[in-house]
C-alpha cells in the first residue's frame, strides 16, 4: 500500500502498495565497513533478535508493512548476501494496518528490527521524535535526488535525514485501450477531448470513470488526478506551504467543484462503491478509466493479464491558472532507516547505504514493480516508464500528503471526508474547502514562519 493510503486505513492501502508504500541512489559517502567482533562501540544498546557471529558476521532483521512484496524482497536481499559474505538478511513483513504500532513497540524494546521500513513525511515524525533512528547525514548522499522524495525522509523540526526513500508513487488516469479504440477515442490532449470521451462512453453500457468513493482515502487522489492543473499544481503547492495562499483560494475551490461536476460520469451511487469494486469495474471492462496511483498497476493487471492498459495526464480544465499544464502528482512511499538499538549498526548502515544505490533501485523497479526513488533507474515495464517520465518532465507534489499531514486533522483526512460529502450532496465545493482550510490551520505553520 502507499504512504497515502496507509494514512487513512492505517491505513488501508498503504499496505497494498497504498502506498504499495513507499530506494535511493547515487554515489554514497563512504560506506561504513563491517566491524570485527560484535559491533561494540557503535552506539547500539539492547538486542534486535540478530546474533553476532564471527568477525563482521551478522543477521540483520528488516521489518516492513509490504506483505505483498515478501518474495521480491527475499530475492533482493539474497543478491545482497552474495556480495556481503557473513551477512544474512531476515525480512519480516507485517499487516499494514497494524504496522505502526508493531514498529513503535519494536523500536522501543529489545526485539525490534536492525533496519525498519518507516513511513514518510508527517507519518515519519513520531518515529523521529522517539529518538530511535540513526541520522544519515554525511553517510548517504541524496543531494541529486528529487527534493520531494528526500523531504519524505527528513525530520520536520531539525531537517536531518533519517532514512532512504525506497519508492516513488505517482497518480494519473488509467484507461482501457480497447474500449477507447472501440469508441473511436484517443488519450485526451485537451479538456474538450476528455469531456468528449466521458460523454461518448456514457452513451454506451460502460462507466466512464470508476471511482470508489465509499473509501474516502481515495478521494484526495481522485481530486489530484482530475483537477491538479485547475488549482495550479506545483505553483499552488509552493504558495500554500509558505502561507501565501490558502485552501479557500478560488482556484482550489473550483478544483474541488471539478470533481463534483464529473460525478455524472462515475458509477451510480458512487459513495456506496468501494475502491476494490471500482478496480473490478475497470479490470473487467465495465469501466473505461480509473484515477489511481502507480501502486495500483499490478492490482489492475492481475485479474486479466491481457488487459491493455494505458495512462494519461488529465488536461487542464477551463479556468486553470495561466501557465498551468497537465501534471503528474507524486510522493515518496516509505523509507528504510537504521535503528539506534541495533547491535550491528555498521552492517545495518552498510545495508541502508546499499539501498541508496542504482543496484537496489533497479531491483525495486524490476522485482517489486515500483518506481524507484533512485535517479537513473530504467524501466522495462512501459507503463512504469511512462509514469516515471511524466513525473520527471512535469511532476508536482501530492500536496495534502507531502505537506499537510504533519498534524491532526490531516489534509488527506479532511479532504477525503469533504469530497465524500460533496458527492453525497451534503456540501458544496466552497464548504469542503473552508472545512479543509479551517482544520489545517489548527496546527499548520507556513514554512519560514
Automatic annotation (TrEMBL):
Protein name (database record): Extracellular solute-binding protein
Gene3D superfamilies tied to this protein: Periplasmic binding protein-like II
Key words, A-Z: Signal
Species name: Luteipulveratus flavus
Signal peptide: 1-32
Pfam families, per the entry: SBP_bac_1
The keyword Manganese appears for this protein: no
Record-linked SUPFAM superfamilies: Periplasmic binding protein-like II (SSF53850)
Amino acid at each position: 500500500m502507499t504512504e497515502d493510503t496507509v494514512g487513512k486505513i492505517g491505513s488501508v492501502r498503504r499496505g497494498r502498495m497504498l502506498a504499495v508504500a513507499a530506494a535511493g541512489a547515487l554515489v554514497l559517502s563512504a560506506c561504513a565497513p563491517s566491524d570485527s567482533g560484535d559491533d561494540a562501540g557503535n552506539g547500539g544498546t539492547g538486542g534486535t533478535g540478530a546474533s553476532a557471529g564471527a568477525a563482521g558476521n551478522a543477521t540483520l532483521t528488516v521489518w516492513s508493512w509490504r506483505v505483498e512484496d515478501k518474495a521480491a524482497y527475499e530475492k533482493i536481499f539474497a543478491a545482497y548476501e552474495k556480495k556481503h559474505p557473513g551477512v544474512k538478511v531476515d525480512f519480516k513483513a507485517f499487516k499494514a494496518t497494524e504496522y505502526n504500532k508493531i514498529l513503535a513497540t519494536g523500536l522501543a524494546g529489545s526485539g525490534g528490527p536492525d533496519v525498519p521500513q518507516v513511513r514518510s513525511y508527517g507519518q515519519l515524525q513520531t518515529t523521529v521524535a522517539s529518538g530511535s533512528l540513526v541520522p544519515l547525514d554525511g553517510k548517504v548522499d541524496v543531494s541529486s535526488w528529487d527534493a520531494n522524495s528526500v523531504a519524505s525522509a527528513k525530520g520536520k523540526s531539525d531537517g536531518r535525514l533519517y532514512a532512504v526513500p525506497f519508492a516513488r508513487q505517482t497518480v494519473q488516469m488509467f484507461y482501457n485501450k480497447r474500449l477507447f479504440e472501440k469508441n473511436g477515442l484517443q488519450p485526451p490532449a485537451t479538456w474538450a477531448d476528455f469531456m468528449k470521451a466521458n460523454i461518448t462512453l456514457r452513451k454506451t453500457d460502460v462507466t466512464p470513470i470508476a471511482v470508489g468513493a465509499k473509501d474516502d482515502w481515495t478521494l484526495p487522489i481522485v481530486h489530484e488526478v482530475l483537477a491538479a492543473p485547475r488549482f495550479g499544481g506545483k505553483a499552488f503547492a509552493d504558495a500554500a506551504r509558505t502561507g501565501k495562499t490558502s485552501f479557500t483560494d478560488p482556484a482550489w475551490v473550483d478544483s474541488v467543484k471539478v470533481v463534483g461536476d464529473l460525478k455524472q460520469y462515475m458509477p451510480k451511487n458512487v459513495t456506496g462503491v468501494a475502491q476494490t469494486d471500482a478496480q473490478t469495474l475497470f479490470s473487467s471492462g465495465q469501466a473505461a478509466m480509473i484515477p489511481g496511483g502507480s501502486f495500483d498497476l499490478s492490482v489492475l493487471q492481475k485479474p486479466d493479464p491481457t488487459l491493455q492498459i494505458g495512462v494519461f495526464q488529465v488536461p487542464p480544465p477551463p479556468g486553470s491558472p495561466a501557465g498551468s499544464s497537465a501534471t503528474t502528482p507524486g510522493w515518496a512511499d516509505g523509507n528504510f532507516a537504521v535503528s539506534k538499538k541495533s547491535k550491528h549498526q555498521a552492517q545495518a548502515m552498510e545495508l541502508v547505504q546499499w539501498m541508496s544505490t542504482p543496484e537496489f533501485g533497479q531491483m525495486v523497479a524490476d522485482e517489486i514493480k515500483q518506481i524507484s526513488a533512485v535517479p537513473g533507474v530504467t524501466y522495462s515495464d512501459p507503463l512504469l516508464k511512462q509514469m516515471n517520465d511524466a513525473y520527471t518532465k512535469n511532476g508536482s507534489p501530492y500536496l495534502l500528503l507531502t505537506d499537510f499531514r504533519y498534524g491532526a486533522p490531516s489534509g488527506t483526512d479532511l479532504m477525503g471526508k469533504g469530497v465524500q460529502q460533496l458527492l453525497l450532496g451534503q456540501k458544496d465545493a466552497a464548504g469542503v474547502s473552508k472545512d479543509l482550510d479551517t482544520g489545517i490551520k489548527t496546527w499548520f505553520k507556513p514554512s519560514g514562519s
